[in-house]
Automatic annotation (TrEMBL):
It comes from the Bacteria. This is Mll4933 protein. Pfam families: Aldolase_II. GO terms for cellular component: cytoskeleton. Residues 38-221 form the Class II aldolase/adducin N-terminal domain. Gene3D superfamilies: Class II aldolase/adducin N-terminal domain. GO terms for molecular function: actin filament binding. The lineage of its organism: Bacteria, Pseudomonadati, Pseudomonadota, Alphaproteobacteria, Hyphomicrobiales. Belongs to the aldolase class II family.
């Protein structure tokens, strides 16, 4: 009897698994840019897991056409931990009616990301958060990140500080911020009195950079707490380290692949 019941449970479980697999296959078929959506959904959920999110604010985007003006973005005021591939909005940076549509994005997300995708075509993926340590850094009189360890050296001559916070990032503020990212070497903007914005070629590239910038900012802030002198790397060694990390093979891709593998085991619904 127990064996029969067990077989029944297995049969039901197997049927349920097959239904999920079928649903995921249909989702892949019906959703444009499915793999890009999965990568972005993974990034949202891991940002929440790492406590780098803030309530239902902050926003990521990913360009999907050649000139970067069409992009995926998170829906307005949905918690990062709940975002699925199918939830992501398709936005046109050149559409003046974007905010009047039924699925309009957050106005500040539109102002900031729309301007960047219009004006900075090499910024394929854009991630903006108010993560704790990067925001502490953004609150200092000097928000430059010095090269005091390997992680912080990654960003030597590769980040810019916006020292002219002008309020919420509506369209005018977004246009101003986008002009600070025109140098292809600059991948991070410390938004003074605000937070941090990171760009990359792919979701993996941008997320990996955002993760390491937060870690580097944490190390720096905690080093300042000691009140002791900092051991800062020379410009030559800092630039050498940054260049070596720029060329380090496959780290960002493997990082995201491992994060997706964990979600596949623990909450595969993110792919739907």
């Amino acid at each position: 009897m127990r064996a029969a019941v067990g077989r029944g449970i297995l049969a039901k479980t197997g049927g349920f698994s097959m239904s999920i697999a079928r649903l995921q296959k249909e989702t892949r078929t019906n959703l444009p840019f499915y793999e890009e959506r999965v990568d972005l959904a993974c990034a949202f959920r891991w940002t929440a897991r790492l406590n780098m999110h803030e309530a239902v604010a902050n926003h990521f985007s990913l360009a999907v056409n050649e000139d970067g003006t069409q992009f995926l973005m998170n829906p307005n005021q949905v918690h990062f931990s709940r975002i699925k591939a199918s939830d992501l909005l398709m936005i046109d940076a050149n559409d003046p009616n974007t905010l009047s549509g039924p699925n309009a994005p957050d106005p500040t997300a539109w102002g900031l990301h729309g301007a960047i995708h219009r004006n900075v075509p090499h910024a394929r993926c854009v991630m903006h958060v108010h993560s704790i340590h990067a925001t502490v850094l953004a609150s200092l009189a000097d928000s430059t990140l010095p090269p005091i360890d390997q992680n912080s050296a990654m960003f030597f001559n590769r980040h810019v500080v916006d020292a002219h916070y002008g309020g919420l990032a509506f369209e005018e503020e977004g246009e101003r911020c986008s002009q600070l990212l025109t140098d292809p070497k600059v991948k991070v903007m410390v938004m003074g009195n605000h937070g941090v914005l990171v760009i990359g070629d792919t979701v993996a590239d941008a997320f990996n950079r955002m993760f390491y910038f937060e870690r580097a900012a944490e190390t720096y802030i905690k080093a300042l707490w000691t009140g002791r002198p900092l051991r800062t790397l020379s410009d030559a060694i800092a630039e050498k380290t940054a260049s070596e990390m720029d060329d380090y093979p496959g780290q960002a891709e493997r990082h995201l692949a491992e994060l997706k593998a964990i979600l596949d085991e623990e909450e595969p619904i993110y792919r739907n």
